[in-house]
Design a protein that fits this description.
With 158 residues, the chain is an alpha/beta fold. The chain contains eight helices and six strands, in the order αβαββααααβαββα. The protein has a single domain, classed as CBS-domain, CATH 3.10.580.
Length: 158
C-alpha cells in the first residue's frame, strides 16, 4: 500500500506572504494547530509552520538564534511568555509566514510504501509529514495514525 492510498488529500496550505493574522484566523476553528504546509504560487512545498514556529513570535530572539542558544549548555533558555509579551496588534499584519516558517521540511513521496513512511516517522521522531508528487508539489498530508488505521483495516480489525 502506498502513501497516496491513505493520505489526506484536501490540505489547507498558506503562502510565504500570508500574514500571521490570516494564518491564525484560517485555523481558529481547529482544535489544535496541525502541521501547516507553506507553498509557492505553483503549489511547490517551500516550508511548514508548527505551533513552535508560531510561539517563536513571542521569543526575544529569532527562531534560528534561539536554536543556537538552545544548543549551548551554559545558556539558560528564555521561555516565551505569551501572557505578558508586549506585541502590538499591528504585528498581526506585519509579520508574515516567511518570517517564522521552518524551511527544513520532512516530506514524503506519494508513491512511497506506508512501511517506509512509518520507518521515516521513527527515524525523525515525527508523527506526521507532508506529501509531495514528483514535481515537489504538495498533494497531501499523512500521519502515523493514518498508517496504523490502514494496518488495522488490512488485518480486518476495523
Amino acid at each position: 500500500m502506498l502513501i497516496k492510498d491513505i493520505m489526506l488529500k484536501n490540505v489547507l496550505s498558506v503562502e510565504r506572504s500570508t500574514t500571521l493574522s490570516r494564518l491564525l484566523k484560517s485555523y481558529e476553528k481547529f482544535h489544535g494547530l496541525p502541521l501547516v504546509p507553506v507553498v509557492d504560487e505553483n503549489k511547490h512545498l517551500v516550508g511548514q509552520v508548527s505551533i513552535q514556529d508560531i510561539l517563536s513570535v513571542f521569543t526575544p530572539h529569532g527562531r534560528d538564534l534561539q536554536r543556537i542558544l538552545d544548543s549551548l549548555p551554559f545558556v539558560e533558555r528564555e521561555k516565551e511568555d505569551i501572557f505578558s509579551s508586549d506585541i502590538p496588534s499591528e504585528m498581526g499584519f506585519l509579520i508574515v509566514v516567511d518570517d517564522f516558517m521552518d524551511r527544513k521540511v520532512i516530506s514524503l513521496s506519494e508513491d512511497l510504501p506506508i512501511e517506509e513512511a512509518y520507518q521515516t516517522f521513527g527515524k525523525y521522531s515525527v508523527d506526521e509529514a507532508l506529501v509531495v508528487n514528483k514535481e515537489n508539489q504538495l498533494v497531501g498530508i499523512i500521519g502515523k495514525f493514518d498508517i496504523i488505521l490502514a494496518v488495522f483495516r488490512q488485518k480486518g480489525i476495523i
